[in-house]
Amino acid sequence: MAKVKVDVSTCVGCGLCEQSCPEVFEVQGDGIAHVKAHSCSLHNLEEIAQLCPVAAIKVE
Ligand code: SF4
Question: What residue ranges line ligand 1, CB within 6 angstroms?
Answer without folding.
Answer: 6, 11-17, 25, 27, 33, 52-54, 56-57
